[in-house]
Amino acid sequence: MERKSFVDMDCSVAQCLEVIGEWWTMLVVRDCFMGVTRFEDFQRRLGISRNILHSRLTTLVDAGILKRVPYSVHPPRDDYKLTAKGLDLWPILTAMRQWGDQYAAPDGPPVTITHASCGENAHAVMVCHHCGERIEPRDVKLNPRANRMPGPPLRERTVTAPRA
Amino acid sequence: MERKSFVDMDCSVAQCLEVIGEWWTMLVVRDCFMGVTRFEDFQRRLGISRNILHSRLTTLVDAGILKRVPYSVHPPRDDYKLTAKGLDLWPILTAMRQWGDQYAAPDGPPVTITHASCGENAHAVMVCHHCGERIEPRDVKLNPRANRMPGPPLRERTVTAPRA
Question: Which of A26, B34, B160, B164 has its Cα between 20 and 30 A from that of B67?
């Protein structure tokens, strides 16, 4: 199935996929959070050719995820750093890492994360910004603004995700 | 750049991408959380052909994300429902939706989510499972088990994500 554009799809998940739906995007973002900023370091870690990496980094700069910050004038060289929009991919990256740790790391997590303030393994959970209680699929109600998606109408409803 | 397999990459983000790195996966999972279970409904919402959809759903069943639950014997028909492994994609989906709402929904979020227990807009934030404090990029320390990734060694370090 061809990758298609989601620009016209009235869905924030689809709009997010418009940016991070290319598999390499989150690997570049991962490396940025690990402190990688230099072209040569991305290249060695991702194992891709220079022209392809340059094209991909330019795409992320154009999408406002990365910004170029010069560190040398002669010759001209840039660090690649996350913008605020890029830094806000952190919850997605964290949720992906934790899912991978749980379901696809038979030898244990390759990287563990320590929460600096408490010193414990920083396992992140999602809570409601307002009441601080956990937010699970069964605890929420969908309120679609309108249904511009094809298929069955999404009436206001309580999500009843099936129990596994 | 060709989509390549991440099976040999010692990284949980890459392993997660191995499953959800196909752009259509999270759209199917999104629809499942919205209560869609029937083949015809997925097809209308995703706008793809029957044979391609069948192939994609089979891939997700094989990956343990979805399970088939018969609802008719004559003719044989199945509902597609999320397994526990599929339900655990919820934090990723939620984080993606919220990022899309923030950066790619100029007319406002297409779907808002109400937290049933407090009645407020269910904006999810990530907190530490142990201490309950927020987990932000600057609050954590990476502890790599070993560096089997090419490129610069990832020493134990405090992440110093650049301020945007």
Answer: A26
Taking CA atoms, B31 is separated from A139, B41, B48, B82, B85, in Å, by 17, 9, 14, 10, 16
For residue B109, cis peptide bond before it (omega within 30 degrees of 0): no
Helix axis angle, B39-46 relative to B23-33, nearest 10°? 120
C-alpha–C-alpha distance, residues A61 and A29, integer Å: 12
For chain A, give me the number of helices (H) and strands (E)?
6, 6
Angstrom distance (rounded) from CA A83 to CA B116: 34
**Is the CB of residue A78 less than 8 Å away from at least one CB of chain B?**
no
Contacting B residues, span 10-49, partner chain A, CB-CB under 8 Å: 10-21, 23-24, 26-27, 30, 32-36, 41-45, 47-48
Nearest to A104 by CA among B27, B146, B13, B93: B13
> How much is the pTM?
0.87
The per-residue pLDDT for range A90-140, each reduced to its tens digit, is: 999 999 999 999 998 888 898 889 999 899 999 999 999 999 999 999 899
Contacts of B126 in chain A (CB under 8 A): 91, 94, 124-127
* Amino acid found at A120: E
When computed from its CA atoms, the radius of gyration of chain A, rounded to whole angstroms, is 19
Asked if residue B151 lies in contact with residue A41, where contact means CB atoms within 8 angstroms, the answer is yes
